[in-house]
Amino acid sequence: MRQARKKMPKRARAVLQNLAAAALLTVLAGTGILNRADYTASDGLYQRREASDGKIVLLGIDQEALEAYGPYHQWGREIVAQILETLNRSEEDKPAVIGIDILFAGETEPSADTEFAERAAESGNVVTACLAQFGRPLLGDEEGGYALGAFSVVGLEDSYDALRSATGRGHINAMLDTDGILRHHLLRITLPDGSQIPSLALACASAYEEARNGPGLELPAVSPTGFWYLPFCGNAGDFEEISIAKVLSGEVSASYFSGKIVLIGPYAPGLQDSYVTAIDHASPMYGVEYHANAIQALLWGNYKTELGDGIQLALLFGILLAGIACFRGRPVWLSTLLWILLCGGWLLLGKWLYGRGWVVHVLWVPVGITILYGGCLAASYIQAALERQRVTRTFKRYVAPEIVNELLKEGTDALELGGSQTTIAVLFVDVRGFTSLSEELKDPRKVVEILNRYLALFADCILRNGGTLDKFVGDQAMAFWGAPLRHDDDALKAMQAVRTAMDMVEGARGICAELKEKYGRTVSFGIGVHLGEAVVGNIGSPQRMDYTAIGDTVNTAARLEANAPGDTVYISRAVADLLGARIRATSLGDSVRLKGKKEGFEVLRLEEILS
């Protein structure tokens, strides 16, 4: 015996759908598809300008200096030597450290090179720059083949020997993220021989701490590639900048720089040393400003750690799972409120975590939650549309189209299994003499044709008067008024029912005349109408149910019909009292005994409708 395949429970199916949706969005986030937009959003949320503590001053090779000393490519190293001599003239008032964001690779004029190196050695507070080249070196293997090695330092541009031996050293590599924005700082570089060189910012900050006998720097945690997330405190132009020309001319006294960190570097657009940074995507920042930001963060110990993507993806999956559970089956207003709370809450949480040293992806959660929110709304609308179709398909077999339209406005609760008690008017109609006619005709096709003519008449009269066609049973039909759309006007229900009955009697005359002419025999109707309370709803099982009415009211209407002679409409006293002078009816008293009814149940014969 072939066993019926069991359907997955609705709740289990919903759980699997939730898991699949959350997993899919989590995987998409993990692919990096949101990275560029997320970087931009993170910069806007996290990076904020703060006033520096005034310990860092920039000496700029700016437009004023270029006008005073000519194009930069024509400068000799003696000019920088003069700056060092000027700044360090007084041992008591000299800067704590001087960082030079200029690469002095190779020798030029021997006298100038020597003078510069000597001034730097005499100063004892100078840090000069080097620049590493990165790539993937070609490595040989034991079998004589070659392979690309890991991304690492493959070359180094350094100061000429005399200067390098006279100063500290720091690299000036500024590594952009994949979107072309500078938001990380490379703390150290590792040379092929295993030795390390700190960044210019780290070398200057360390020298400053040493000069003031500080406790030393507590360094940030870095990624496996040596980077750490830089919280910028200043934007382009926020750090104090003084032209080299003002220092050399004596306009600004060297004592002004006493005990400070002085950074010397290009500060003019034409010198091509600027970067778009996380704190402002519109205004490029000069290299010396970038190093100043890194120094300030190192001195403050203001470090941020980017939470690992694995942890964030797991967190994202959990939040998305909770989000879709919140959205499914909720009203639109509640889903919208939950969407706002989840997205806004994540942004507030991200800001709060940033203040405590953790950097999380800004957009992962809001984008995922928004997609789920939109998806659940779309699913709700689609489900509502399908429900409307289901209602239409179900009730168009029972009721007039206008009632179906009204029912769609009310909702789909009427399709749920179960019923409720309400007051309805019930009509039963039966074709008298049809059995003998069908026996005489003997041709099944003619029998069916005649029966369909009558049933079509029944259906047309019922639906035209706003009734619900419950069922056909052979040559009998049942209809009721007052459900599925309920109203409290019982008189209207009764009037619609009796008008339907009279329309059937009138409409049957043409069919009867045709049968008389064609077959020499005819049939007639017996109709019963009663009004009272009944249970109306979908009765049966989830696999097979009927929208119907049950109860004593239904039984009474059936008994009235069963006792009505041909072409006669029997109504109950309840119907007659509701309609009053709007109809003319003849009371038969209790002369008509209805099965199951006590003595005294009054039956009336409907004669005509007066209004």
How would you describe what is shown here?
This protein is of the alpha/beta class and 611 residues long. It has three domains: 101 residues, no CATH class; 254 residues, no CATH class; 196 residues, Nucleotide cyclase, GGDEF domain (Alpha-Beta Plaits), CATH 3.30.70.1230. Helices cover 43% and strands 23% of the residues. Strands 18, 19, 20, 21, 22, 23, 24 and 25 form an eight-stranded mixed β-sheet that branches. The protein is rod-shaped and about 140 Å long.
Summarize the topology.
Elements: H1 10-30, H2 35-46, E1 56-61, H3 63-69, H4 77-87, E2 97-100, H5 110-123, E3 126-135, E4 138-140, E5 146-148, E6 152-157, H6 161-166, E7 168-171, E8 184-186, E9 188-190, E10 196-198, H7 200-211, E11 227-229, E12 241-243, H8 244-248, E13 261-266, E14 274-277, E15 280-286, H9 287-300, E16 305-306, H10 309-327, H11 332-355, E17 358-359, H12 364-395, H13 401-410, E18 418-432, H14 434-441, H15 444-464, E19 468-473, E20 476-481, H16 490-519, E21 524-540, E22 545-550, H17 552-563, E23 568-572, H18 573-579, E24 583-587, E25 603-609
Parallel strand pairs: 1-12, 1-13, 2-3, 2-13, 3-7, 16-17, 21-23
Antiparallel strand pairs: 3-6, 4-5, 8-11, 9-10, 14-15, 18-20, 18-21, 19-20, 21-22, 23-25, 24-25
Helix pairs in contact: 1-10, 4-5, 7-9, 10-12, 11-12, 12-13, 14-15, 15-16
